[in-house]
Specification:
The protein is mainly β. Helices cover 2% and strands 44% of the residues. Strands 1, 27, 29, 30, 32, 37, 38 and 39 form an 8-stranded antiparallel sheet that branches. It is globular and about 75 Å long.
Length: 581
């Protein structure tokens, strides 16, 4: 059940906003003992792709995607000279990352809109459920995010005076059904919410949906009147188009433009546009739709970018127009582990219609930068090849780090340059809230490594690294103790719901761990192949298993809407250990 009041807790150590009161810390006071602790001294991520070598931007160019890794359903908005951006996170937490930029290319994450357990409840939802595509609006000094919590109470609205947060508790919108709500403010101060909903009659085919609109009273924070139909099926109903979604309305030169995705989020994805002299329609489609797609292009083209759509259009202070949108970079036949990423292209207006990319053209990996002032401070890298090392020496984890679902207990802390995880009974594969923190895999070819100290006290205790797409598909590399009391480095894999929730052992090596001695762990991705290594001394890497089938982390195999994450994890094998959802 959704709790709309604040749960009293503090998540400063997680790099999320402060709520009211302290967070419960696992301990023996509740009748259960605390589990063993795993200490991670640093975490290093590095990645570079073939496209980074093939397409190197000059000083006047930028590289696509501008946000690598799973940053899907991008929504962008301008307020004055500042641009703001938010994307989907589904059941990862903190949720709905908020970014700032002044040049549209380089983005600083400034917060997470869903940063308090009391805001939403993801329960045991799959990692591709919960918060779907968010949208951004601004009016009279207030920022708005509209969003859908799928399988957790529907559509809602949150507000903030500062996009860094704090964001308000959700205002639920029961009259707004379906998904992808967007709040449009007209010049006269009127407001309306557009959204994807069921068709006006019985669905005529699978994927038959519609775009609706309903009035919104800003002061009362509630909808007004009944929903009105703006678009049924899509721009060409005779072709039986599927999933018109992600609708936005923009106004330019006396016209209202309804911009929406169409075709589903896979290789048939596209962006279409219609226009009207009234925000409420009737809307007429552009004769040359779609205004963005990669469907129909040769499958054997080099370094393909596919599945483009879900665009948001934004103007710059000098009157130019640009679009952010999602697309994917497969390493095989629709195989990608990096999820749906964020791209940027200019918008050209042709005879009163916006066009992002002409039919038959491929999305470029490099493009001329917008003529805009550089974003300051210089953001961490999110495009091209790069290395990022987290030393855990700050007061909080990076804002980009996430955990699975919403924690209700403090089972982690930053302490003297270390990230300490308390091992608990909750497992990665258990549809719960395990002791896990991680970051996005942002490259097709990438590696992540860490230095860890952990002493398993009994058989089944484990801690180490995880590469995970969802509860049913993941790898674990770390330290454990077997039933005979032998410490070992182990690689476990779950390749689907038929495998045990705790994973199946793939490889192991017995080790003698000296008290307090560290272990080094490394996961390397090479497209659809993953390698797993460990070291007992600095730089002395040993391969535990090479060439594992990493396609189990792809969207094609694992399903859903998210990409893979790489992170750290600890598990206590005893059922009476301190745990919690």
């Amino acid at each position: 059940m959704i709790r709309q009041g604040l749960v009293a807790l503090l998540l400063v150590a997680a790099g999320v906003a402060q709520a009211q009161g302290p967070l419960e810390t696992p301990g023996p006071t509740d009748g259960r003992r605390a589990g063993p602790e795993a200490a991670f001294e640093w975490f290093e991520y590095t990645g570079a792709d073939p496209s980074d070598a093939a397409f190197k931007p000059t000083a006047t160019q930028y590289a696509n995607p501008i946000l690598k890794g799973t940053y899907p359903d991008p929504a962008v908005m301008r307020v004055g000279k500042d641009f703001y951006f938010v994307s989907s996170t589904f059941a990862w937490f903190p949720g709905l990352p908020v970014f700032h930029s002044t040049d549209l290319v380089h983005w600083n994450q400034i917060g997470n809109a869903i940063d308090r357990p009391g805001m939403l409840d993801f329960k045991r939802l799959g990692l591709s459920r919960a918060v779907f595509a968010p949208t951004l609006s601004h009016h009279d000094g207030t920022f708005y995010i509209l969003n859908t919590c799928v399988d957790c109470s529907g559509n809602f609205l949150i507000t903030a005076k500062d996009p860094k947060g704090p964001w308000s508790d959700p205002v639920w919108l029961p009259a707004v059904e379906g998904i992808d709500p967007y709040l449009f403010f007209d010049d006269d101060g009127g407001a309306m919410i557009v959204f994807n909903g069921a068709p006006p009659g019985p669905p005529e085919y699978s994927g038959h949906r519609a775009i609706w609109a309903i009035g919104y009273d800003v002061k009362a924070k509630k909808t007004v009147g009944e929903p009105r139909l703006l678009l049924d099926k899509g721009v060409n109903p005779s072709a039986k188009p599927i999933w018109p979604e992600g609708p936005h309305i923009l106004k330019k030169d006396g016209w209202y433009y309804l911009v929406a995705a169409e075709g589903g989020t896979a290789e048939g994805h596209s962006q279409v546009v219609l226009r009207s002299k009234s925000a409420w329609g009737p809307y007429v489609p552009y004769a040359n739709n779609p205004i963005l797609t990669q469907r129909g292009l040769s499958k054997d083209r080099p370094l393909p970018i596919t599945s483009a759509g879900h665009a948001t259009l934004v103007d710059t202070p000098d009157g130019k127009w640009w679009a952010t949108f999602l697309a994917v970079r497969p390493y095989g036949d629709d195989l990608y582990n990096t999820g749906r990423e964020t791209f940027l292209l200019p918008v050209e207006w042709k005879d009163g219609w916006p066009v992002i990319l002409e039919a038959g053209k491929t999305i470029p990996y490099v493009h001329t930068k917008p003529a805009l002032p550089a974003t300051t401070p210089t953001p961490p890298p999110t495009a091209g090849g790069f290395t990022v090392r987290e030393e855990f020496d700050g007061k909080a984890l990076p804002l980009s780090w996430v955990t699975m679902r919403i924690p209700q207990q403090r089972w982690w802390r930053l302490d003297g340059g270390k990230l300490i995880l308390t091992a608990r009974p909750e497992t990665i594969g258990g549809m719960t809230q395990p002791s896990f923190w991680g970051r996005r895999q942002q490259h097709i070819n990438a590696s992540a490594s860490t230095q860890m100290r952990f002493a398993p006290s009994k058989a089944g205790d484990k801690a180490g690294m995880v590469a995970v797409q969802n509860d049913d598909y993941y790898f674990f590399l770390g330290v454990t103790k077997d039933a005979g009391g032998q410490d070992k480095i182990v690689l476990e894999r779950r390749a689907g719901p038929k495998d045990a929730a705790g994973g199946v052992e793939v490889a192991s090596a017995p080790v003698t761990l000296k008290t307090g001695a560290p272990v080094w762990l490394k996961i390397t991705a090479r497209g659809g192949l993953y390698d797993f290594s460990y070291a007992l001394a600095p730089g002395q890497w040993r391969t535990l298993k090479a060439g594992e089938d990493g396609t189990i982390l792809s969207t094609k195999t694992a399903g859903g809407f998210v990409g893979a994450l790489l992170g750290v994890y600890a598990h206590d094998a005893r059922p009476d250990a301190v745990g919690g959802p």
